[in-house]
Write a structure and sequence with these properties.
Layout (H helix, E strand, L loop, with lengths): L16 H11 L22 E2 L6 E2 H11 L6
Antiparallel strand pairs: 1-2
Length: 76
């Protein structure tokens, strides 16, 4: 199970509600308070190199793609 999305496993358990609820009870990860996987890019889901200033919450790759649309200018 990865830090990105633990819900992928639940696709097989949709038809068995009792097994599914027991699985969620014992295997759901706790909400992260520290570490690199605490913040995710809202656009692509990457963990590293986040830009959180001004409430942007994007990774640097996504920010470069849509910076002009957001109103940022490249000065160099």
């Amino acid at each position: 199970m990865t830090a990105s999305d633990w819900r992928k496993v639940l696709k097989q358990l949709n038809r068995k509600p009792a097994v599914r609820s027991k699985y969620i009870k014992h295997n759901k990860p706790k909400e992260r308070t520290t570490g690199i996987a605490r913040k995710k890019c809202e656009r692509c889901g990457r963990f590293g190199s986040m830009i959180n200033r001004y409430g942007i919450n994007l990774c640097r790759h996504c920010f470069r793609e849509i910076a002009v649309d957001l109103g940022f200018k490249k000065y160099s």
